[in-house]
Design a protein that fits this description.
Distance between the termini: 67 Å
Number of strands: 19
Radius of gyration: 29 Å
Helix content: 25-40%
Strand order of the largest sheet: 9-8-10-11-12-18
Strand content: 15-25%
Largest sheet: 6 strands, parallel
Structural class: alpha/beta
């Protein structure tokens, strides 16, 4: 549960909250914004930017009203920022209003700030910590605990001013029910934290990477690691993961690594600290042995890019066989010279599709011109670069080009068109994946269809069973591929 709630009737699906959330803690389900508590730091940005008022702070008014009705002794801890928040000419008017509402006392939280500051000074003077991050702001604490756990060691062992003031009030008046009054959303979240109960009695702040999930025993969240979400291939895979996870009440957290090993390792740290229950690796260029060691004892599944050396269950197609079938299809339609636009790198799909291309050419008794093996990447721009290199080589164009992805194929078709080379009349182009753009582009791209949704769904299914304790690390699920014929390939048989 988050300190910020979504009024679904007000949400107009404008995505402004998602675009502005600094930690991407918002997802959209059936066109409605949904805050993911395990990622949210309650900074309030979404509340500020929402033009419809759909995001609002969780109201505690009814709780306080019931306490007052029961005759409980209410003491207000009033944040110093109240003067600006309430915009009154006389600050005592706020004090008077609170007392009329049933508060026995009104005290300033600044007292707690002074106590916490003294404790911070003591910690600094001890010299036991080389680097110290203040723990006065619960939003910052959540940011570090949830998104930068490697920095937890630098958090000062001191409670926030709100908690310090609560302790001070309770010490002098044990019967008091402390109510914090202020504009900070994160304070609502902090007040619910299981650690605050103890902190009222002591000044020690205890960073806990499980946070509120200690009350649940599990985070009910899974992590999906991928290179980039801009690749249209992943959209259906992620959808399959999300829908299967939702069936068991799990939310999905996406982590884009952009091929950065440091970012990927940071995500693995989240697994090690139990901030999430398990992970699905959609792409990783780390050696399988290293991943096995990093993820030891953690539920993980490989999808799309399985590595034999990574001891984890996997779901994919047979990329080598799929590429072999694609080249065989081109050969059967009269193409005798076939170029390959690959991606290079260590991804298993890249390696296996290249191997399948070479094996099929060899099986057909056809020569592979190494100048026609061009590896620029999976993207549209990569396909454009590869096509331009082919055109600039000055050699006779091959009959066809087999591209490692549909995005690459679209880029190749575009570059050929700009150069006056007609597809498929002058050269056939074949893609891979059957992404939406392969059908929408003109000419339509002949391609190899991967069951992307099924890959995602099965991967989530395997991960959930692993989270429940099943040892399925040896399970390798290989799904079927399919050739999809469209206009970018023409038969050259006489």
């Amino acid at each position: 549960m988050s300190a910020i709630e979504t009024k679904k009737a007000n949400c107009k699906n404008c995505y402004k909250c998602l675009r502005n959330c600094p930690v991407k803690a918002i997802k959209f389900t059936s066109g409605q914004a949904e805050i993911m508590p395990d990622l949210c730091i309650a900074c309030g940005t979404c509340v500020q930017v929402c033009p419809q008022g759909a995001q609002q702070a969780e109201s505690q008014l009814k709780t306080v009203q019931r306490m007052a009705e029961r005759g409980e002794k209410l003491v207000a801890s009033l944040a110093p920022s109240f003067y600006g928040a309430f915009k009154v000419d006389d600050p005592m008017k706020v004090v008077g209003a609170l007392k009329k509402l049933g508060f026995a006392k009104v005290c300033e939280t600044a007292v707690g700030a002074a106590i916490a500051s003294d404790e911070m000074a003591r910690v600094a003077m001890e010299g036991k910590m080389d680097n110290i991050i203040s723990t006065c702001c619960p939003a910052v604490n959540d940011l570090i605990e949830k998104h930068y756990p490697e920095l937890v060691q630098y958090l000062a062992p001191v409670v926030s001013p709100m908690v310090a003031h609560g302790r001070y009030i309770k010490k002098h008046d044990p019967e008091a029910k402390v109510v914090f009054v202020g504009p900070c959303f994160a304070k609502i979240e902090e007040a619910r934290d299981v650690r605050v109960d103890d902190a009222i009695e002591k000044l020690s702040y205890s960073p806990n990477l499980l946070g509120r999930n200690l009350r649940r025993g599990a985070t009910k969240s899974i992590l999906v690691l991928l290179n980039t979400i801009s690749n249209p291939f992943y959209s259906r895979v992620v959808k399959g993961i999300e829908e299967r996870a939702a069936e068991d009440g799990y939310s999905v957290m996406l982590c884009m690594t952009h091929g950065n090993m440091e970012l990927e390792q940071r995500a693995v740290t989240l697994l090690q600290t139990k901030l999430i229950d398990g992970a699905i690796f959609l792409s990783s260029e780390q050696p399988g042995e290293r991943l096995t060691e990093s993820c030891r004892g953690i539920p993980v599944v490989q999808a799309c890019e399985p590595q034999d050396s990574f001891l984890a269950a996997s779901v994919s197609i047979d990329n080598r066989k799929a590429a072999f079938d694609a080249i065989s299809y081109l050969v059967a339609h009269g193409h005798r010279s076939v170029a390959f636009f690959g991606a290079g790198g260590a991804l298993s799909s890249s390696i296996c599709r290249k191997e399948g291309y070479r094996e099929a050419m060899q099986y057909a008794g056809l020569f592979v011109d190494e100048a026609n093996v061009i590896e620029e990447g999976f993207s549209i721009h990569a396909g454009m670069r590869a096509a331009k290199r082919l055109l600039q080589s000055g050699k006779t164009l091959p009959d066809a080009v087999f591209c490692i992805s549909d995005s690459s194929a679209v880029g190749a078709v575009r570059a050929f068109a700009e150069a006056g080379t007609r597809v498929p009349d002058d050269i056939s182009v074949m893609g891979f994946d059957n992404a939406l753009l392969s059908e929408a582009y003109l000419p339509g791209i002949t391609t190899v269809k991967q069951p992307r949704y099924e890959i995602g769904y099965k991967s989530a299914e395997l991960l959930l069973s692993a989270i429940q304790g099943e040892d399925n690390r040896a399970q390798k699920i290989v799904l079927s591929h399919e050739l999809i014929e469209r206009e970018s390939v023409v038969s050259r048989n006489l």
